[in-house]
Request: fold
Amino acid sequence: MAIVGLIASALGIALGLAINWFPVQGSKQADKIDTLWNVLIICSVPVFVLVTTVVLFAARDFRMRPGEEHLDGPPIHGNTKLEVIWTAIPAIMLVSLCTYAYLVLHDIEKAPAAGSERNIAVHGQQFTWTFDYNEGGKKFSSAQLYVPVGESVHFNVTTKDVLHDFWVPAWRMKIDAVPGLTTHYRVTPTKLTPTDGYPVVCAELCGLGHAFMRQTAHVLSKPKFDAWVAKMTKPAATAPAATAPAAGGAAPAVDAKKLFSEGNQQTGATACGACHKLADAGTAGGVGPDLDTVLKGKDEAFIRQSILQPDAEVAQGFSKGIMPATYAKLLSKPEVDALVKYLEEVAAK
Ligand code: CUA
Reply:
């Protein structure tokens, strides 16, 4: 039994350490968390294997055999030494691991020197995240998360409606957004993002659109981050800054079908097609009403209202509050006009 247990433990630990559980380590905190995870694997696999092995051997050697139905087993009077051992070992392991975990938590939550940290307010809302910045006294919001590499960021997380959970897997840190509370965590991103960014995920089941509550975190070099801040705080842009046309050029025509099926990465406007089926755009989303059916015979005013104030009139069988009411902010006027025109044409077909 001991030999089987030892071999199974060794295999279990090897497998547990060989599996690539996590994405790239994108923050200063990630390494310590991954080490904690590995230590937990090393400690918990032998415990699991010990219990399982004893159960299997007991079932093989001490099971009731035919003809023994009326027999009582030999009287056992306990074994004090054994009981002390199997109480003491788990107790020592638990206290040690809790202490270790506490030290790791204390370490990764340590605040950097005053003033050297950036605060970003994170707001959860069915089904989108908004990030509020205050850069040198200039306040602005973004639907995508941008941070400079190598600088500590303190996130203050709130929600406007139900529970959400703010998670960037590459940074490892994760915290619930709880109605009525502000929760916090800090990370120091250490790696520039790949061109498509790191996923920002909602990790708390929050309604029908939970799976779509995904945005992107971009870790930029300091100069690029400063340039982004400058762009976001530039005055006199009527459209959201990210979509403002280049100085002097006319606004480029909006490709409404593309906007419908792919959304706008820059402003963070999620694709309509992620939730809505529309044959003409080739989308098959099933969270919201099927636009091939519900738009039949609808006029321009209805379509516009449905995009900008989605709760004003909700299709039968669907509830208010599922479609984010943020499109009025995320889409520029030309984008809204183009979408309305496109959907009106499709509806009239
Ligand atoms: Cu928000 Cu799940």
In short: The chain has three domains: 2-65+79-108, 117-236, 251-348. The chain has a mean pLDDT of 87.
